[in-house]
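Page 37, top half.
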Amino acid sequence: MQGWYRNARWLWLLWPLSVLFGVISGLRRRLFSLGLKRAYRAPVPVIVVGNLTVGGNGKTPMVVWLVEWLRTQGYTPGVISRGYGGRSEHYPLVLNGNTTAAQAGDEPVLIYRRTGCPVVVGPKRAEAAARLASLGADIIISDDGLQHYALSRDIELVVVDGKRRYGNGHLLPMGPLREGEWRLAGVDAIINNGGPAGPGEYLMTLTPGNLQPVTGQGEAPQSGSKVHALAGIGHPPRFFSTLETLGFILDKQVALADHQAMVPEQLAELGDKPLLITEKDAVKWPGGHKQCWYLPVRATLPTEFEHMLSNRLKELNHGD
């Protein structure tokens, strides 16, 4: 909701609902902290990659980076996810090469295709974590789930959008926050996507790769080409801005809601110009355009973050 980031005055009408949301979520946290509600402890370490706000902040590139980095450290990582936007008849769902975004959600499918690591989806993360551990993963990455206290965690990483930050600073539905900013004091690291990074934050930069074909034939569009652009992510303007920075001339910009599916008829209306989409949209491609390409991105984090994470893992291993 754009009003969250523009301090729209009418949002004060939602203040009573935000108070109620805060009371309910606070009570739930309290029940877990007192042990009145039991949290599941996985047999292997759990790293949560989450955020305070609704909408995309760059968690998926962070999860992909984390999978690849953990492998260099000798781990066999796996990923669990709620699988938002997907629907399966059976949970927990273990992804394979035939799993679709309609079944598992777009982000888990993207992570599985990019990394090849085991990915398990389910609304109950404890069940997904147990299933993943049984598959041989010796460390679990929870894609989102910072507020899912039914699953114990060993390391918490919070990703924040460097431009939008925390919006108006209010809880849902008056603002974008799932929990107050006080929550950041208890996490292991704050990863700032795009900057500028604040004190104590680690800057994550996303570097675009080469365009990859979805249905495109021949040579990919080059800088200076007129193209259409489509993005169904948490903040589509970030994708459009990236394309313009790369030198593309955007004839039409189609912004969809996060996880929203495309329909072929909608794409057919765009005409014959090349269509550029995100990798997240590519995994749920419905057809309908003959010259479509997706732009992959790769996360880069500072060595200081790697050292911090390495030390935290050593502490966990020493504790065992």
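Page 37, bottom half:
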Amino acid sequence: MRRTYDDLVHEAATVSVDGWDFSWLNGRATEERPSWGYSRLLAGRMAAARAALDLQTGGGEILAGVPVLPPVTVATESWPPNLELAASRLRPRGARVVADDGSERLPFAGGVFDLVTARHPVRTHWPEIARVLAPGGSYLSQQVGPRTVFELAEWFLGPLDGSARDVGAARAAAEAAGLRVVDLRFERLRMEFGDIGAVVYFLRKVIWIVPGFSVERYAGRLRALHERIEAEGPFVAHSSRFLIEARRPGGPAA
């Protein structure tokens, strides 16, 4: 029996969106993954590191999946529900979880980490990353690229400026902070939303796609999108991702 619009929306509007686990969308939405395999790269870098810092760790899901963590592993997170999740996952692994107050300056001494990582950071403070890296240390990050999920965002918001999160700008900022970019890759990836519940859940969880999103505020556009999906099949959008690895000059790893 086909579920109604009200049933789908109510379910998606009331389920928890804490953490950074998207398994609720299994069978309801799909997204292609970048070919470079960030989790695999992360595991390799972590296994070789002595002291590592994972920035904006979310609920700690990605870091907790790393088989071997360095002797010193620290993660930061700013959103209180995610902070609690991250602590529950990472403290049993010997990792310390530190609250990020949102300021640009990281609460660590300079030159103490030989590896800094971040998966989908909201912001990248390149001078601070360069400051806390030890000579020869590396920053490895998979980031959200330009015009990510714009098809969905523009359904609700109208035409948008897609110039943010430029890959070239990331390279320039890293180099301006004194780092040397040793790897930079970009891919555009297909996404499909199979029902309106998947859309509601996604927009509740990834809050920057449609800022201020709520079911009540966008009821008309949600119902129109539901009718389109029912008539034409999954709503197709595209994400973009880039991988950047930058190294601080000096030291044995340079």
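Margin note: DSSP finds nine helices and eight strands in the chain.
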